[in-house]
Every structure is written in structure tokens, then in C-alpha cells.
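Sequence only, no structure available. Ideas?
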Amino acid sequence: AGIAKIVQDFNAEGMTGAKDPGISELKWELYNELLKEGKLTVRVFALWAGPRKLDEAAAVMARINAQPRPPQTLGDGLLVSGGVKMYMDGSGGARTAWMHEDWNKNLNDVDTGNVGYPATPPDQYRTMAINFHKAGVHVSTHAIGDRAIDWVVDTYAQALAAKPTKGLRHGVIHANTPTDHAIDEMARLQRDFDAAYPEASASFMWWIGDNYAGNFGPMRNPRMKPFRTWQRKGIRWAGGSDYSVTPFAARYGLWASVARETLYGTYGKTPFGLEEAVDVKTALRSYTIWAAHQIFLDDRVGSIEVGKEADLAVWDRDPYTVPTAALKDMKAELTLVKGRAVYRGEAFAAVK
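Reply:
I predicted one. C-alpha cells follow.
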């Protein structure tokens, strides 16, 4: 019932797709039940919960091998057994993510001796990720700290050097403050192998941004979610929410990508600066066609083109022309999945 309700809530927000990271066999069964009942009106790309140590990897691989691989789907594009989610580090809010330099606290203070830590033993992570890659499995890895991001991107580079394979679209979940090295490698790996895509939650800068600004500190804050740098380097990224860490509505992520404002302004309205802000058209791509790419459905949805399936949202305003502050208050009036209305606001309530 909970999944069915959030599917409805997604549709009411003009949303038609989600990447659900770290699922269990039970949740996979629930998605299949909803699919059979005709209640799955959000396209779900499921990532299986990944191993934290080597002796767990075989069981995860068995779960993956029991299901069809992308681009194959269930329900004609509604449910995808996508790959595996792995963890390289912890949290930015709790200062446990793996960093090159000590964490800050209260913006300018230093949390001396705390550089966070890897959530998976680094050498074991690298072995498992490379083995998944060799088996043709899409890997997406949680990496928040700059050191963790470096390790993940370098692992993908090693995997692709050992077995050059295009199209697995390995992801870097969050990729908060990547180093110049990581950014350059992501650009190269995307260009040469269709891999190493940031899967970023712009709304982190808003909903938990005051905590983040105090923890990352004045030297790292300007590198937070470096969207404009990614754009300049030719890097595409997928926008998301990381719900329930932040509210799931994509309109918040669109707005945060442009405004980069925190919820309370504890350290000023825009402690991450505006140098890495992007325009709303770029932000919208990150929540549509670039996001569709990361759920292996960009040949079906994500843009309005002849021959694609009609996953569409009608909004109460034009996001290209309204003031930035109005983006976060957008309301969906009508949502279609495969051309069928799955949500109607008041303006379309009586329309057949």
C-alpha cells in the first residue's frame, strides 16, 4: 500500500520514472505484484542491494542473474532489474563520508583527525565492482566524499581498461564534491565508454544544505554539485532526490539546480555560491532525458520525439519564463504514462 501511494504521489508531481537503489527480493516481489495489478504507473529501475564484502558478492550476482538484464524489461518498460548499488562511504550530514582532508564543522572550524572512512573495504570494493563490470552488470555507487569519488571513478576506469565495454552506464550516486581528477575522468569515461555518470541530488543543497555548508566548509562548498563545470566538460548527470533524505518532487531539484539556496540560510543564503548554477533548461534535461539514460529507457522516454512513448506532464506555468523562485512551486495539471492519464488536476478533471 505504501508503494502504491508513493506511485500516485509521484504521478501527482508530474513524475513518471524512478531509480530505486538497494532493493531486496521482497521489494522486487511487491513491484511485480503492483505491475500485475496495473498499479505501477511509474517506471521503476531497481538496483539490487550490493555486497559490502567479497563473500556476499555471489548471492547478489545470483539475484541479478535470475532476472532479465537491461535493455530487457518487465511490463513493456515499466519495471527494470537494473544492476547493483554499492557503497563507498557514508554521509555528508554526519561527516562520515571519505575525504582527502579533515572535515569542517560550523563552517570554519576543523573536525581535526576526521576524514571519514570507506563503508566498504576499498580493495574489496574494487574487486567486486570490476567483477560485476566483467559480468556485464550496471554498477552505481554511493560516493559523497572527494576521496570516495576518486576511488569509484578510478575503479570504473580500471574495469573499463580491463574489459572495454560501452553502454553499462556505471553511476556515481551523489558525487557531491568531486576533485578535478574525478571530473576529468568522468568526462573521459562518458565520452569513450558511456560510463561514470553522476546521479546527483540538487535538493541536498536546499533541504540539508545548512548542515552540508557547515560540514564541507569554505574551501569545498564552492565545489558542491559542480553542475556548470560538468556542463562545460561535456558531462551529463541524472537528477534525483535521494528520497527520503529530501522531498522527492523533481520541481525542488530543478529549482535548487538554478538557485543553490539553503533552507534556513544559516551561513548565508547561497553558501555554495552561484558559479556552479545552471539554467533551467539544463536542469530540466537532468531530470528528463539524462535521467532516462540512467534507467536505460532514453530510447522510449525522456524527450518529446516521434516514435517515443508519451510520458508527459502538463504544468501550471512555463518553467523557461517564470522567475527562479517560482520553479519550486510548480504544480502538475496532467500526467501521462504511455499516453494514458495517470493524474488529473482540477484543470483536467473533466477532460476525457
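The first strand starts at residue 17 and ends at 23.
Hope that gets you unstuck.
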